[in-house]
Each structure stands twice: as structure tokens, then as C-alpha cells.
Amino acid sequence: MPMSSTLSWRTQWAEYRRPWKLSALAVGIGLLLLGAELTPAPDWDVPISFIMGLLAYATAPWSLRVLMERQWRVLPLAVFMTWFTVDGCYAIYWYVKDPAVLELMRDVNFLASLTLYGMCGLVWLYQGSLRQGWQALCQPRLSRR
Fold first, then answer.
1. DSSP secondary structure string for all residues of 69-95
2. 119 within some domain
């Protein structure tokens, strides 16, 4: 399947429903929930794990694809969606829940969340089934003579 940031909504919805992507999302959210329980960070809780995890699933591969394909026309939206997922939703959540935690943790959260967002974009970037991806990786490369 060709990479494109301008996929139809129907095609994009099909990508979100791929079992391997949903499985990766479930594992990722599971790890976030585990971290929320085991880490003493005051800003890592269950609701923000779901909020940021689901937003990353929805936006990270698209934002990365915009950069890779040099889709400059939609770059401002990709930058906004990246910021909103990495920092904006976090700031809104903690402003409402506990502004002191927001002030204490916002700076350190940004870099960690941005790194995870980029990793999520890489994991979910491929558009196709696992079988198609495996075949693409394992196909012998034809050498030019």
C-alpha cells in the first residue's frame, strides 16, 4: 500500500482497525498503565495514559508521514497535532486536575512524550498487514548491473 498523508477517510479508518496496530496499541497502553502504577511520578496516572496513548495512535503515524513526504501544505496541522498530543492535552488535563503537578512536571514530560510519540509514529507508520510488511522486508533486493 503506498504511503500517503492524503489517504481517504475510509482507507485511514481501515488502517486504524488493523489487528497488528490495535495489538501494538493495547501493549503500549498496557505499559503506560503499568508505569502509572509502578512509577512515583505525580503526573503519570491512568486517565492521562489513555488520553495520550489514544491521541498518539490517531496522529503520530500521520504526522511522521507528513514530514517524510514533505507535505508542506499540511505541516502546520501536523505540528499542531504533535504539540497537542505531546503537551496540549497534558497541560489541559493537569490544569483541571491539579495545576501544581502541571507546573512541577510539564518541562520534563515534554521531551519524554515527544520521544515516545516519534517511536509510536515509527511503529504504526507502515500501511499494510503484517504479512505484507514481512514480505516487503524479506523480498530479495534486485541488484543493478
1. TT-GGGHHHHHHHHHIIIIIHHHHHHH
2. yes
